[in-house]
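Hello forum,

I keep getting stuck at the same step: I have a sequence, I want structure tokens, and every attempt I make locally crashes halfway through. Rather than fight my setup again tonight, could one of you with a working pipeline run this one for me? It's a single chain of 357 residues.
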Amino acid sequence: MLSTSGSNRIHFPAEFQPQAALLLTWPDDETDWQDILTDVQETYIDLINKASIFVHPWIICRNLKSKQLINSKIHINKYQAFFSILDYDDTWVRDYGPLITQQNEVRHIHDFQFNGWGNKYAAKKDNLVTKKLWMQGDFEAYYLPLLQKAQPTAKLQYHTHDFVLEGGSIDTDNQGTIISSQECLLNTNRGDRKSSDIVKKLNETLGIHQVNWITKGKLIGDDTDAHIDTLVRFVNNTTLVYNHCVNTSDPHYQHLKEMEADINDWKNKQGSAYNNIALPLPSAQYNRLGERLPATYANFIILNEGILFPTYGCEEDKIALQIMQQLLPDKHIVTIDSSTLIKQSGSLHCATMQLPY
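Reply #2:
Ran it on my machine without issues. Output:
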């Protein structure tokens, strides 16, 4: 068992901590993006190019043909892109990619189970991605050299867990507290478990001391069972941002109001309240069938000194950007049109997974 106390304590770093690389999975014609493939590939190229301002992009693709296509389209800025070739079902690597903890010079690569968001979608290939990256030696070839530039004695260890957990379902304040939604982590489609079981497992694996829960807040069109990264996010160890709805006729209004009440009750492990900042809910976005899509500004990516921020071509984009820039004046905020991504019910954060130093 990993140590969770003393000087050898395991630490789960927050996204606002220093990062070495950003993992993405390329959308191709074998994924669910076939009908809008050109549009989504353009979005991913934009994402890769802008991510490379702040961090090394690490791109998973299915074959050499895809690698050649990507290389022909990207123009890398400051940081070099890495590639891994393997098979997968879907592109939402946030939920099947590695969760990484620190313990002195060791970085522990945690491979939790992924069951397609409660057995809704095919997931067998996705569930093997982190294991294959380890077995192929890609972590040692790509990630370890980055770590060793900062810490020459850095080492990697791989752990697989018989426990369903998606990266988008949790967020941390970097001080031993995680936030999540009961609708997701306590859902029987993830397993028969109680909140105490979850806290114990997260303590054993990620060194987490407590979980702050939301009981309401799911967005219409969200098929993840209320992932926290669509609703509430930490931007530093004392401050979080969350979706806020002011339109009383919007079907989200009551649930998000109840979610806000939960958030206002949250404390860190020292017993202090967080600084809670409201982000507007984007104007309602719809697909071609007239179904509402889960557009949210909470699905941004923090990348070292930058933030990749989703926009949807609506008037709230400017308001949300102003709030984030005022809140984080030291960050370089770069926008990415995420109107295509939400057509498959995700956005920027869902499409990526950070690898910390």
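Residues 120 and 245 are 28 Å apart (CA to CA). If your local run keeps crashing, start a new thread with the error log.
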